[in-house]
Structure formats: structure tokens, C-alpha cells
């Protein structure tokens, strides 16, 4: 593990891309059934953890606009702490530091990934020995995207995103990710009446063979014109797609140099970054690397 002499354990929380996102129906509880292909990128929030002498949880710095108890990091830690207390009777608290790199409301799953890294790391530090299945179940209650980050493998996902089939065979290209400066509200997109919810269900072989679309793209582009504008711009260079419910869009390239060349041609007001697609979560690479 990425330990340092001062006792802090440093573990990344990577972003994900939805290489396609099909909405295939809606459940009675309002949630949508979807099919999607998740891949991680090596762009990450940076979290650090240290056990305390008392039983408190702390988080520094706080995330702007998110109350301490609402932060997915604290919600994940509390959920695990409750289980740990039942198992062990008492548990030390933890200091957690967060360097927020991933844009919020960007469709990159940053909050979900922070939650998953917290579950995985505190499970190890508190020696709870919960399985990935148990951690993914806890994570699903925090958000639909948490389980894929807990399991840490690129995957074809069904249900609300929790039924995962690993896809280690995916290419690992370079991505140019454009970050329109708007915060998309996921609930607002899923409740929009113009969203199509009847895309044909496909099997994993088809999913891996053909390039799917993002069914949220049309609605997001209408509600957030900055996203539509960025899609049009990037499409001039390479096929561009929305990730999740946006706002971020991405294109894939065979090399880092090609991705950088396109990013250099974007007008200066566009925020973007280049990252590598990876089929194993960088958090897993740190926490579970052979010693
Ligand atoms: C669009 C994706 O990013 C694809 O990876 C995820 O499905 C969204 O996952 P997430 O951000 O973790 O979303 P959640 O926090 O679980 O849900 C936010 C809101 O979006 C709606 N929602 C979300 C996921 C889903 N499959 N159907 C929905 O209708 C619900 O109204 C929910 O209250
Ligand atoms: N640690 C956290 N980091 C980011 N957002 C958080 C965190 N904890 C709670 N949130 C809340 O979760 C919301 C969604 O954040 P997130 O960055 O995961 O969005 P997203 O990338 O659009 O996610 P998704 O792709 O899963 O829809 C934020 O607007 C914020 O209110």
C-alpha cells in the first residue's frame, strides 16, 4: 500500500467513462434500467487515510457545497463503521484528506469513486475483511455507480449499473475529455419526459462488437447547450460522446500525442484533459498489488 512514514495511506479514486449508455426501461421505483460499458481512466481524486486514537471521522478539506454528513466519503465511512462496530464492539476513527481533481456533476463518477475508495481502504485499515460483494452492496445504497468502483474492473453493466460482467478485453486507448463548465443534475435528466427509455436490450457480445450511443445525450444537449456546443466542436476532430449524464464528453485516440494534438487545437475557453483508459482501477492497483 502507498504508505508514508507519517502514517497516511494514499489511495486514488479514479474517474470512469460510460463508453455507451443505453436506457432500456424504467422500474416501478422510478429508477432506470440501463446497459452500459464502464472503463476507468487514470485521472483520479487523491484520498489519504490515517487511523485516529479516538472514534471520530474527519475530512479535510470539505467539498464546497457538500455538507460534511452528506459527503459520500463520510456516508461510506459511517456505513462501514456501523458494520465494524457490530463485528468488533469498538473501532478507531479515521482522518481523511481529499484532493478533489475530478469535476463534480461531470458524469465521471467522482463522488461514487471517492465512496468506493473509502469503503475499500477502511475495510483494510479496520481489518473488517468484508468481501467485494458485501462492499458493493453497501456502495449501491450510496449510488448506482459505486459498485463498479468497488469491484475495480472495467465492466458491462446492467440493472441500474450493479449487475457487472468484467470486460478485461477492452482496448485501453487515450481519451481527450472536455469539461463543459456546467453541473448536470442526474435526477433532472432521468426524469425528463423526452428521454428515450426503450433501447433494445443487447447481449455482451454485441455490446463489445458495436459502438453504442449515450441515450442521455440529446436531452442533456437541449437542457445544457454548452454540452451540445462542445459535442459539435469535438466531433469536428473525432467521434465525441457524453459520459453518464454529462457534462463531460470524450473522444478516443490511439496515442497520447494524438489526443494532445487535438486538445491543443480547442479554443482556449474549453477546459479539457488527456487520460489513459485502464481496465483495472488505479485504487485496486495500490490496495491489492502483490507485496
Ligand atoms: C448515469 C450513470 O452515471 C451511469 O453510470 C449512473 O447511472 C448514475 O449514477 P449516480 O450518479 O450514482 O446516480 P444516483 O445518485 O444513484 O441517482 C441520482 C438520481 O438519478 C436517477 N436515476 C439514477 C440511476 C438510474 N439507473 N436511474 C435513475 O432514474 C434517480 O432519480 C436518482 O435519484
Ligand atoms: N466526495 C464527493 N465528491 C463529489 N461529489 C460529492 C461527494 N460527496 C457528495 N457529492 C455530491 O454528489 C454529486 C454528484 O457528484 P459526482 O462528482 O459523483 O457526479 P457525477 O460525476 O456526475 O456522477 P455520475 O457519473 O455518477 O452521475 C455532487 O454534485 C455532490 O453534491
Report the span from N to C terminus.
9 Å
The 3D shape can be described as globular
> Which residues sit in consecutive blocks of at least 5 with pLDDT less than 50?
none
| Beta-strand content bin | 25-35%
Secondary-structure-derived class: alpha+beta
For the record, the CATH architecture stands as 2-Layer Sandwich
Domain count? 1
Helix content estimate: 25-40%
Bound molecules: 4-diphosphocytidyl-2-C-methyl-D-erythritol, adenosine-5'-triphosphate
Per DSSP, the total helix count is 10
Q: Please summarize the sheet with the most strands.
A: 10 strands, mixed
Number of strands: 10
Pathway: Isoprenoid biosynthesis; isopentenyl diphosphate biosynthesis via DXP pathway; isopentenyl diphosphate from 1-deoxy-D-xylulose 5-phosphate: step 3/6
Keywords: ATP-binding, Isoprene biosynthesis, Kinase, Nucleotide-binding, Transferase
Protein name: 4-diphosphocytidyl-2-C-methyl-D-erythritol kinase
Pfam families: GHMP_kinases_C (PF08544), GHMP_kinases_N (PF00288)
